[in-house]
Write a structure and sequence with these properties.
The chain is an alpha/beta fold. 51% of the residues lie in helices and 27% in strands. The protein has one domain: GMP Synthetase, Chain A, domain 3. The protein starts with a helix and ends with a strand.
Amino acid sequence: MIKELESFYFLENRQDVEIFLGFNLFLMEILMDAPCQIVRIFGESVKLYLQLFIDPEEDFEEIFIVIKNSFSPDEAIKRLNKLDDEWFLGIMDKTQGKLNITEGSL
């Protein structure tokens, strides 16, 4: 499972990500589809990271796809909004609030 993801993503805190996904297997299909959708809008020069966000005060965990790119901040946000409109908002219910997408500079 994790090996497949590592062909698309850099995993930060690999062990924590693996445990989280073990409890949230429904995210695997989305995580496997996401790189294709992201590359379609951002291009092939991006680097994708999976980062687990844990808020112990709220007892909440969520995994983020971070799209590292070399676009200007305005262009990157424009593309992220396009990704939301063309793909992510349509599958958001399937994430059960456990997945989000953001961008950052390379």
